[in-house]
Amino acid sequence: MTEFGFNDLHSFKDMIIFVQMCAPNDFPERMAYPGQYWTLDSTFDGLYLGLDMAVEEGPKLVFDQCWQLVEQAYQCYRAGDRRGGWFTLEKVHKLLRISQNPVARIADWAI
Q1: What pTM does this model have?
Q2: What is the pLDDT of residue 58?
Q3: Cβ distance 29 to 35 under 8 Å?
Q4: From CA 38, how far away is CA 91, in angstroms rounded?
Q5: Closest by alpha carbon to 14, among 6, 3, 23?
Q6: Distance between CA 102 and CA 12 in Å, rounded?
Q7: Cα 95 to Cα 104: distance, rounded to the nearest angstrom
Q8: Between vectors from CA 43 to CA 52 and to CA 2, what angle results, nearest 5°?
Q9: pLDDT digit string (tens) for 85-101?
Q10: CA-CA-CA-CA dihedral for 58, 76, 97, 107, to nearest 10
Q11: Can you give the chain as a three-state secondary structure string?
Q12: Which of 28, 18, 24 is nearest to 50 (CA)?
């Protein structure tokens, strides 16, 4: 497990949801580091690390797309566009889900 609380793609997707729920400035205290609080910068550092770890497992076009979307979401939050950041991270979550599950891929195209 990393200092960001994930060690696989499933728990990385949980990190995305955590960031969506707390960004830009409603982050809790870090359980592993009492007295320290998550921040927008620290959580996005974790998202970048997670994408780097995923690429080490094997390069996929989806990880490049996700990297660009994470950067876009970060810029949205930094500019005060909470809604834009949230929906951009939702695209990342959906891309990762689709890339891991062929059944979800078919279901998403049916919508």
Answers
A1: 0.82
A2: 65
A3: yes
A4: 23
A5: 6
A6: 19
A7: 10
A8: 55
A9: 999 999 999 998 887 65
A10: -140
A11: CCCCCCCCHHHHHHHHHHHHHHCCCCCCECCCCCCCECCHHHHHHHHHHHHHHHHHHCCCHHHHHHHHHHHHHHHHHHCCCHHHHHHHHHHHHHHHHHHHCHHHHHHHHHC
A12: 18
| Rounded average pLDDT over 17-42 | 94
- Closest listed residue to residue 13, CA positions, set 108, 103, 92, 102: 92
Handedness of CA 69, 72, 78, 84 (dihedral sign): negative
Name the average pLDDT for the chain.
85
Token pair in block for residue 25: 């400035």
Cα 107 from Cα 111, distance rounded (Å) = 7
Candidate ranges 2-6, 89-93, 106-110; pick with highest mean pLDDT? 89-93
List the structure tokens of 24.
Answer: 């830009």
